[in-house]
Design goal:
The protein is of the alpha+beta class. It binds flavin-adenine dinucleotide.
Length: 463
């Protein structure tokens, strides 16, 4: 207790006492992210702990000083952005320091000519987008959680958004990073489009979940505001029929900015719906849309009313506002609303239908219900929403999570990846050996070299 008291005292001297919070409600709020208890295997529920304190640094130099003190005291540091991560990457597993980066929210530079923006890592994506609007630029990253997720959190989970088909994942948009390493050194990678001067160090932190260092600044590629955006929707008689249309769209060279396809959707339980969006230079958008319309028509798709696609696009961030309003009760709510889970996996497009078929067999054998299956962004990225309806408590959770494990292991066996955008956190840590083989040992060795005291977000990524 003495060491901890003196550490809090030292940190207060670095950032000011008003930016070191120790009240129980605040500590509880940042001790957990958006992972629902109901999505954890009963055998793998982590022992969460109340942090010692939450610190709100405003500058890289402050982050560095805090990390040096934490390292000396061997106290864990958990970086925290919007807290919207779905895998428990920001969960506190032992009493430590939560670094809430949302005070580091400045836009440091927008260079319209070079199409880049340099920002502090705690800026919320929507705030950055609003600032870019002034320069007729857009962020290529537009997830459901645009109003809550931060640039640092999105980089650290290598998140994917609605415009991913055109602009890629968050990591694809990172030109350069500034990172505070566990020993307090500051690493700055060059902010350039391409470089052939050794391995790319920024990729240690893209998807790194804060285990190798704290991202304090990012230089991002930004894009010209599209001259035109077009949206359209189709319904298909079956998942397979719609899938073939999506496959054709991509294999003929089209890459729609928005692609959302799935069956089991509320208003159309018997059909599979596809929403497509194209954006950019008007003439190109018109040609892309005409080609996509022809492909979907030939594949047997019925065009939806234009308003359906417009509504879909307009309401895409509503879920994030619900999340923000209800976040304090999230853990309790997830326990009440029954057992549901999702998988978001990446597979070669040629194996998606075979995987789906085998997955349906596994689920029916295990008594787990498939509520929805779909594609996001491109035919390789496949998701399923699963539920257990007639089993209570741990029994339902056990059934569900055993099924999820079997599906994810099947994905790995078929040459795919068990998760394409939400990260690993604590939820998928036990499956990392199957995902990476000896690669996990390589990650562990890198972690040991950079962070011998294991203070940086310990227990995540299976490290
Ligand atoms: C309703 C809902 C919808 C969602 N929709 C999407 C979606 O469309 N696409 C998608 O990809 N994800 C989605 N997510 C998941 C989540 O929004 C993303 O993972 C997001 O990128 C997390 O950002 P955050 O700022 O909230 O990070 P946090 O949850 O705070 O942190 C995520 C991880 O990054 C680490 N971290 C945070 N900041 C830093 C930093 N500066 N340096 C180093 N490490 C750091 C944390 O320790 C943690 O491991 C959704 C979540 C919810 C609840």
């Amino acid at each position: 207790m003495e060491i901890e008291g003196s550490l809090i005292e030292q940190i207060s001297q670095i950032v000011g006492a008003d930016r070191v919070l120790i009240d129980a409600a605040r500590l509880d709020e940042v001790s957990w992210d958006a992972l629902s208890d109901g999505r954890l295997h009963p055998l793998r529920r982590p022992q969460a702990a109340l942090p010692l304190c939450v610190v709100l640094p405003a500058a890289t130099a402050e982050v560095r000083e805090i990390v040096i003190r934490a390292n000396a005291a061997k106290v864990p540091v958990v970086p925290f952005g919007g807290g919207s991560g779905l895998m428990g990457g920001a969960v506190s597993l032992s009493p430590g320091i939560v670094l809430d980066l949302r005070r580091m929210d400045r836009v440091l530079e927008v260079d319209s000519e070079a199409r880049l923006a340099r920002v502090q890592a705690g800026i919320v994506l929507e705030a950055l987008q609003n600032r870019l609007n002034e320069s007729r630029l857009i962020l290529g990253h537009d997830p459901w959680t645009l109003p809550v997720a931060t640039v640092g959190g999105a980089i650290s989970t290598n998140s994917l958004g609605y415009r991913g088909g055109k602009y890629g994942s968050m990591g694809d948009q990172v030109l350069g990073l500034e990172v505070v390493l566990p020993n307090g050194e500051i690493l700055r990678t060059r902010s350039v489009e391409k470089s052939s001067t050794g391995i790319s160090l920024k990729h240690l932190f893209i998807g790194g979940e804060g285990c190798f260092g704290i991202v304090t600044e990012a230089t991002l590629r930004v894009f010209p505001a599209p001259e035109k955006r077009s949206l359209c929707g189709f319904s298909f008689a079956s998942f397979e029929q719609g899938f073939r249309a999506v496959e054709k769209i991509w294999s003929c060279g089209l890459s729609p900015a928005l692609l959302d396809f799935g069956d089991g959707v509320d208003n159309y339980p018997e059909r599979a719906l596809l929403y497509l969006g194209f954006e950019g230079v008007a003439k190109i958008v018109e040609a892309e849309e005409a080609l996509a319309l022809a492909i979907c028509g030939e594949a047997g798709g019925d065009a939806l009313d234009h308003h359906a696609a417009e509504n879909f696009w307009r309401e895409r961030h509503v879920i994030a506002y619900h999340f923000m309003q209800n976040r304090r009760h999230r853990r309790e709510r997830s326990a009440e609303t029954g057992r549901r889970d999702w998988i978001h996996v990446a597979l070669p497009a040629s194996r998606v239908l075979a995987f789906r078929k085998e997955a349906i067999d596994i689920l029916s054998r295990r008594g787990v219900c498939l509520q929805e299956s779909g594609l996001w962004t491109q035919p390789e990225l496949f998701s399923m929403r699963l539920a257990v309806e007639n089993a209570d408590g741990d029994q339902g959770q056990w059934l569900l999570e055993e099924a999820v494990d079997e599906l994810l292991r099947l994905v790995q066996k078929m040459g795919g990846s068990m998760e394409y955008c939400h990260g690993v956190g604590v939820k998928l840590a036990a499956l990392m050996a199957g995902e990476h083989g000896y690669g996990l040992e390589v990650m562990r060795q890198i972690k040991r070299v950079l962070d011998p005291g294991n203070i940086m977000n310990p227990g995540k990524l299976g490290l």
